Amino acid sequence: MDIIWDFDGTIMDTYPIMTEAFVNALVDMGIDDIEIDDYDINLVMRRHSLGTCLQKYAAHFNIDKDKLQEIYNSYENDGILQATPFLNVDKALQQNINNGGRNFLLTHRGQSALSLLDKYDFSKYFTDKITKDQDFPRKPDPTSISYLIKNNNISPEKCIMLGDRRLDVDAGHNAGIKSCLFDPDSMINSTGDPELTINNYYDFIHRND
Q: What's the short name of a Pfam family annotated to this entry (predicted)?
């Protein structure tokens, strides 16, 4: 089987760092920390996106969204390389190769994703990678998946999109392939009806399909 992997919240547990960066950015913009709900920030990022989080909190606190994003980006850039992989994800990647499959990366993140893969010696698991630097439309638009399918001779019926948000599930379905939702904290309430849902990679490794 060929697997197209999302990155943030799927391979690397980046959300704690992203949430902390967002909280720090709000504080820098004069928001009292007792008014900041870090759980809700994480929830909005997980269920929707960073962009949605920026829009929501800029409106809620009546602050400039672009400035909030600028400060957030600075904090995130400083901390993102401290992110760690999810338990057993390396075993899942290797098992897929051992079974004759290939792994592909599809992320909205740029160079930092590649740097983290190199840091943990994960680059070796991937046949091809797409990051934001290739300027494809964002998921759930299927263009980037269709590109991977065409340029790597992937059989759609033997391919699955694996990610942690509904937009990953929808992107896979929009491209005509199956989808797997990785939901380690059971936060996703609107799933998009993936063919498979997991909350840890031990279960993924030992699945029957």
A: HAD_2
